[in-house]
Amino acid sequence: LICSPSNYMKFLVLQHINIEHPGIFLKFMKEDSIQIDTVELDENEKIPQLDQYDAMIVMGGPMDTWQEETYPWLKPEKEEIHKFACVQKKPFLGLCLGAQLLSEAVGGKVRKMKTPEIGVLKVSVTDNKSLFKGLDKDLKVLQWHSYEVHDLPINTNLLASSPECRVQAFSFNKAFGLQFHVEQTSKTVPEWACVSEYKLALEKTLGENALEKFKRDVEQNLDVFNNSAKKIYKNFKKII
Q1: What are phi and psi of 103, to 5 degrees?
Q2: Is 3 in the active site?
Q3: Of these residues, 21, 96, 145, 148, which one is catalytic?
Q4: Mean per-residue pLDDT, 57-77
Q5: 6-38 pLDDT, tens per residue?
Q6: Quick one: average pLDDT of 47-53?
Q7: CA 96 to chain centroid
Q8: How far apart are the first and last CA of the chain?
Q9: Rounded to whole angstroms, what are the CA distances from 32 to 8, 175, 227?
Q10: Are 161 and 122 in contact (CB under 8 A)?
Q11: For residue 169, which of 214, 135, 204 has the smallest C-alpha distance?
């Protein structure tokens, strides 16, 4: 019996709120028999020894990178991300807050945006050789963020941009940060809309009755998001 290498893979997933999980990526990982260890940091679960993992995926969350006093686990999380992505140089995928945490780990900064990006929007892929191989240059994605990455060091690569947010995606060694979301399922927007910080940002940016339109937009584009997620996942696996 010849086993595929993925049968031996073990991924570490760091979550900051239980409803913001890897979404459709969970389905892909389970199909590949990848072992997934999930750490719920907001419930004070501790990050295990990193040596046993082939890759790390860090999700989004309603908190911001600078809120270490309110969320004291952010500091050790940043240290472990730095160790995994910068010292051990292992494959890493950060989404939204996960991308911002990666940027700080590699020496970049995070700042509040003039205008938040919320909705089904397009990003321009400027480097489609690795993680975005096989994807459209104009990529339709879900955005829901009020902070952005900036001042990245010169040893990082810019992979995607938008008019409102220059750093939509970047890489450092085998680590990738995506400011946008492609992992969503049909449950994502209704669940995230229950988070007060997200709902407030949504209504402030798009108006009081924006949720229903937003949900429709996401549902209409779900196949596009899922196809993008599948390609990104396959490309990430090749990097591993």
Answers
A1: -60, -40
A2: no
A3: 96
A4: 97
A5: 458 999 999 999 999 999 999 999 999 999 999
A6: 98
A7: 4
A8: 23
A9: 10, 21, 17
A10: no
A11: 135
Convert the pLDDT of each residue in 156-213 to its tens digit: 999 999 999 999 999 999 999 999 999 999 999 889 888 888 888 888 888 887 888 8
**Of 79, 68, 69, whose CA–CA distance to 14 is shortest?**
79
Contact status, residue 56 vs residue 67, Cβ threshold 8 Å: no
Return the structure tokens found at 224. 């596009």
191 catalytic per annotation = no
- Which pLDDT value is given to residue 123? 98
- In whole angstroms, what is the distance from residue 240 CA to residue 54 CA? 7
> How many whole angstroms separate alpha carbon 71 and alpha carbon 120?
29
In the set 77, 117, 148, 183, the catalytic residue is 183
CB 189 within 8 A of CB 218: yes
Estimate to the nearest angstrom the gap between the alpha carbon of 104 and the chain centroid.
14
Q: How far apart are CA 77 and CA 105, in angstroms?
A: 10
- The pTM for the full model equals 0.94
> Nearest to residue 102, comparing CAs of 158, 10, 46, 178?
178
Q: Provide the mean pLDDT of the chain.
A: 94
**Residue 201: helix, strand or coil by DSSP?**
helix
Q: Read off the pLDDT of residues 210-226 as tens digits, 9 standing for 90 and up.
A: 888 888 999 999 999 99
Q: Are 82 and 105 in contact (CB under 8 A)?
A: yes
Q: Is 181 a catalytic residue?
A: yes
> Three-state DSSP class for 170?
strand
Q: Which residue has the tokens 């938040």?
A: 116
Rounded Cα gap, residues 206 and 36, in angstroms: 36
